[in-house]
Write a structure and sequence with these properties.
The strands form 2 sheets. Strands 1, 2, 5, 6, 7, 8 and 9 form a 7-stranded mixed β-sheet that branches. Strands 3-4 form a two-stranded antiparallel sheet. The chain is elongated and about 50 Å long. It has a single domain, classed as Phage tail protein-like (STM4215-like). The chain contains 3 helices and 9 strands; from the N terminus they run ααβββββαββββ. Helices cover 25% and strands 46% of the residues. It is α+β, with helices and mostly antiparallel strands and 128 residues long. The N and C termini lie close together (9 Å).
């Protein structure tokens, strides 16, 4: 699921034109250029099980869009939302927006100020 999701986002022209290959799971590398996207699995587990093995799984994935300005982060988040909400392909049987905007805050580390727009997606996928 992780590889498929990252590849899909990187293949969308409206996203790749802004971030190139700066789509990372977990944390962005120190000093990474902006804008960029980070992805985090919040929860992940099976939807159904049988003696035949794992079937469909469901993950909640947090997508953070980062920018030097709030506008830059927000424009990127709109491109991600448009591309990912109600998308399916490969092992992913469906991606659906679960929530957005509740954590749109600047990330002030005392040195630089960057802006983040956060969205959560439910990702249904075939495990294995």
């Amino acid at each position: 699921m992780e590889e498929a999701l990252r590849a899909m986002l990187g293949a969308v022209p409206a996203i790749s034109a802004r971030v190139a290959a700066r789509i990372d799971w977990g944390l962005a590398p120190q000093g990474q250029a902006l804008p960029c996207i980070t992805l985090t699995v919040v929860t992940d587990g099976p939807v159904d099980h049988s003696l035949d093995g794992p079937g469909l799984s469901r993950a909640r994935v947090q997508v953070d869009c980062w920018g030097e300005t709030y506008r830059e982060a927000k424009v990127l988040s709109r491109a991600v939302r448009t591309a990912l909400d109600a998308w399916q392909g490969g092992v992913i049987t469906g991606a659906f927006l679960a929530g957005a905007g509740a954590r749109d805050l600047p990330d002030d580390d005392g040195v630089t100020e960057i802006h983040r727009v956060t969205m959560d997606f439910i990702i249904n996928y075939h495990f294995g």
